[in-house]
Design goal:
Structural class: mainly alpha
CATH topology of the largest domain: Growth Hormone, Chain: A
Low-confidence stretches: 1-22
Number of helices: 16
Shape: globular
Helix content: over 70%
CATH class of the largest domain: Mainly Alpha
Largest sheet: none
Radius of gyration: 22 Å
Length: 426
């Protein structure tokens, strides 16, 4: 059975999209397109700034209070806007000009960084200042995120979309490493106040890159207004587009029963007995695996059977959970968590690509926001279930049970929605 044909709008760029597919697709092919290079720089600077500010704020809160409870509250204020405003960001991205929305939110986001820097410089900063300004900063970041993601498909040909999404995903994974390291060095060398000023200034090249885009940034379709109906339309689109619904279900069940990160300290201390250094290696291994997985996708080019690849990657994730549950040696545990990161990166990249392919331009903002909110919610639920499972049956048995349930959920999803396995893009 062939997948549904969904029209994709013609990209706005200096090269003719009709000429692009004739060229061999290389890992760097999307970088040959001017507008993609610009949006890549914009997302790179914005995400690095966000990760720097988050780490700097957490450091400052703990330095001011010495309280783990206050540290947890600071993390809550950073994450809370994803749940509250994630869906609203998608509606806004499908209603207003996406370029103007990115520029306005990022201009406003410069203010919290500078205010935190000034308060720290003058010695008047308090914890409630940090939390309140972080809440504003994170909210602005969440509101602009769907607009940035929804712009990408209009900047590259359809044949390059998976390449572009993979490059963007790799870059976002990289900023989760670069941002904290850069923040740490700046705090150590020049102080917390200067670190805030630098992360605020990083938003300026991001704004400049968006201003230089040739794409109009206007969402396709008829002009619409912000309303509850716009949000309902997004849910209706996901429900009726069965392939996308199956992607969400696969991710939901895999994360719900297989969110392994919260219980890695148990493996480090009680099973592998490797201490803090070994725990750091266990947390680093998924990132290394993810980079390898993204690199392989780049070399593979445009995969036609994306549905089969997603199912296979999720099944590999389930097997890797079982391998970690059976692991008694540290080296085997490292291989297992590396494989978890590897399979997850492939699944995430292809899922994002398929959502952008199947969603019409006027729906892409809402589809991207649903993806983000869905991931944040399932991560939170998965963390609770992982902790409860480890407490009831032990960490190893919890992962073995998660492996079984994840495999069953894959079979159940493919049986209920067979369109995913048969989906291919011509």
């Amino acid at each position: 059975m062939r997948g549904p044909h969904v029209p994709v709008p013609k990209p706005e760029q200096e090269h003719s999209p009709g000429d692009q597919p004739a060229l061999p697709l290389r890992p760097w092919s999307s970088f040959l397109i001017r507008d993609y290079r610009l949006i890549f720089v914009a997302i790179l600077c914005a995400n690095t700034s966000m990760n720097m500010r988050n780490v700097t704020s957490l450091y400052q809160v703990y330095h001011l209070t010495g309280s783990s409870m206050q540290l947890g509250l600071a993390g809550f204020f950073q994450a809370f806007p994803f749940v509250c405003f994630g869906l609203l960001g998608g509606v806004l991205a499908d209603t207003f000009n996406r370029k103007r929305m990115i520029i306005s939110t990022q201009l406003l986001n410069v203010i919290p960084g500078f205010v935190l820097g000034l308060l720290t410089l003058t010695g008047t900063v308090q914890v409630w200042h940090v939390n309140a300004l972080n809440l504003v900063s994170s909210s602005l970041q969440v509101l602009s995120g769907p607009a940035r993601q929804a712009l990408v498909p209009s900047l590259v040909p359809v044949s390059h979309l998976m390449n572009a999404v993979t490059l963007t995903t790799m870059m976002q994974q990289g900023t989760q490493l670069i941002g904290p390291v850069l923040a740490g060095y700046l705090i150590e060398l020049v102080g917390v106040d200067k670190a805030y000023f630098v992360d605020a200034l990083l938003l300026l090249p991001s704004i400049g890159s968006v201003l230089m885009l040739r794409s109009s940034g206007q969402p396709g379709g008829a002009r619409r207004q912000i309303s509850l109906r716009s949000l309902i339309e997004g849910f209706e689109f996901l429900w009726h587009t069965r392939v996308i619904l199956s992607l969400f279900l696969l991710d939901f069940f895999a994360v719900l029963v297989g969110y392994y990160r919260p219980i890695l300290p148990i493996f480090a201390s009680d099973i592998f007995r490797v201490g803090a250094g070994g725990l750091g290696a266990l947390y680093a291994a998924p990132a290394i695996g993810a980079l390898i997985g993204s690199g392989l996708l780049l070399t593979a080019g445009d995969i036609k059977r994306k549905g089969v690849m997603t199912i296979s990657a999720t099944f590999l994730f389930a097997l890797s959970l079982g391998l970690l549950g059976l692991s008694k040696r540290f080296a085997l545990g490292l291989i297992a968590v590396g494989a978890l990161g590897f399979s997850d990166s492939i699944s995430v990249t292809i899922r994002r690509t398929m959502v952008q392919l199947l969603a019409p331009d006027q729906m892409r903002g809402r589809a991207s926001s649903f993806l983000t909110v869905f991931a944040q919610t399932t991560n939170s639920l998965g963390a609770v279930i992982a902790g409860a499972g480890a407490a009831l049956v032990g960490a190893s048995n919890a992962l073995l049970l998660g492996c079984l349930l994840c495999a069953l959920s894959i079979v159940g999803t493919c049986w209920a929605i067979p369109q995913l396995w048969s989906y291919r893009r011509e």
